[in-house]
Amino acid sequence: MLDIEKLVGTSCRLCPRNCKTNRNIETGLCKTNNKIEIASFNLHFGEEPPISGNYGSGTVFFAGCNMACVFCQNYPISQLKSAYKTIDEYALADIFLELQNRKAHNINLVTPSHFVHLICKSIEIARQKGFNIPVCYNTSSYDKVEVIEYLNDYVDIYLADLKYADDELSYKYSGVSDYFKVATRAIIKMQETKGPLILKNNLAIKGLIIRHLVLPNNIENSKKVLDWIVDNIDKPTISLMRQYFPAYKASLYPELSKKLNNSQWNNILDYAYKLGIDGYFQVA
Ligand code: SF4
């Protein structure tokens, strides 16, 4: 069994950045130290239908991120950390229980990778107090395989991005040159441990949804992402997202400086239909 605390220790290697920061005294490339930082929590109704359901997904937004996407739509939280609160594992457990009491269908951990060792402790504490709704791990997929294996006892549903199938793009836009290799290994492990998406009464209870945000003027990348999914994942559920808008540093990249147009979206939709893809296609 992985000793996840040891992976953080005084030389953090919790995520694939392996930046070896002593998080007891400084912040790593994820911009966080060894204390949980949350920006907000609430019921969220904008996720895929089996995640949001009628009563909402109990979403917790963590501050910081182990990637640095130039177009990040959550950049005030993930990159600038303009407003956040530091809490301990017990307080996070209480948040899980509060959201459960408010009838959340699940707990939705948004950008959890750099806090995963602490989040698991909170899940354990909350379970001792009656926490029993599914846990969603909402990730860029820039996660280590051994961490995904460790999460098997804690996570029920993966909401896993597959952003790029091209290392040049991942380096240019997100500052990591090994994204495709790392993310695809992580997604394969997610599939191996949780299997395809399972619904009960139209709500997700277990499994994997792979999300892909279609970037303007990068349609070939999106097609390669879809190709990889259909070639490698059994019965995939894909969520194709067209919600891109130029945020954060996107205006510095001319190709990213506008929203996705209809013709590019239709192009990728046609491609998805041709591949026989099943899933969720975001309405503009
Ligand atoms: S979790 Fe943060 S500190 Fe740890 S390796 Fe990743 S980026 Fe570095």
Automatic annotation (TrEMBL):
CDD domains given in the database record: Radical_SAM
Sorted UniProt keywords: Iron, Iron-sulfur, Lyase, Metal-binding, Pyruvate, S-adenosyl-L-methionine
Pfam families: Radical_SAM
Residues covered by the Radical SAM core domain: 60-196
Cofactor binding, note field: Binds 1 [4Fe-4S] cluster. The cluster is coordinated with 3 cysteines and an exchangeable S-adenosyl-L-methionine.
A GO MF term: lyase activity
Gene3D superfamilies on file: Aldolase class I (3.20.20.70)
Keyword Metal-binding: yes
Residues involved in [4Fe-4S] cluster binding: 65, 69, 72
InterPro entries (alphabetical): Aldolase_TIM, MJ0674-like, Pyrv-formate_lyase-activ_prd, rSAM, rSAM_sf
Full protein name: Putative pyruvate formate lyase activating enzyme
